[in-house]
Amino acid sequence: MNITNFRPATAADLPAIIALLADDALGAGREDLTDLEIYAAAFARLDTNTLLAVADMDGQVRATLQMTVIQSLSNRGGRFALLQAVRVDSGLRGQGVGAAFIAWAMDEARARGCSAIELFTHESREAAQRFYARLGFAPSHVGMRRTL
Fold first, then answer.
1. How far apart are CA 86 and CA 41, in angstroms?
2. pTM for the complete prediction?
3. What pLDDT does 144 receive?
4. Contact 140, 82 (CB under 8 A)
5. Contact 23, 33 (CB under 8 A)
6. Where are the alpha helices (DSSP H) in the chain?
7. 90 CB-contact burial (10 Å; exposed 0-12 / middle 13-18 / buried 19+)
8. Which of 27, 39, 106, 113: disulfide with 22, CB 3.0–4.6 Å?
9. Cα Dmax for the chain
10. Which residues have CB under 8 Å from 22's CB, separation 6+?
11. Residue ranges of the chain with pLDDT lower than 50?
């Protein structure tokens, strides 16, 4: 594994990020690689509590994740991090890239004052659930969603 850099994403990384997001059955149905303007506008709206990050290997984006730090009143005014849109290039899965990237994200969360990190993964992503369990994540909440 020649991951040289975990870093915040730039606008130039967006095409590679969108391709990673679209590279599975769920993402293929909701991402649109032909409309980068929508993603550029969303990227411009990210605030300082949100970190869109990439894993760069030999100058190519090979993984991505988004982490949002949430300030809470509960838990004595604590902060926690929410991970989403974690994707690793399908050709690199099983090689430690994802584990190293999540470890980096957890360090970033600690540095931002977070006492916990949470994530959501679709119930159909059983391999992802096993991966997160190996990293010490445990089911703790029941997620619910409603389309607006």
1. 20
2. 0.89
3. 83
4. no
5. no
6. 14-21, 25-30, 36-45, 74-77, 97-111, 126-134
7. exposed
8. 27
9. 45
10. 28, 31, 33
11. none
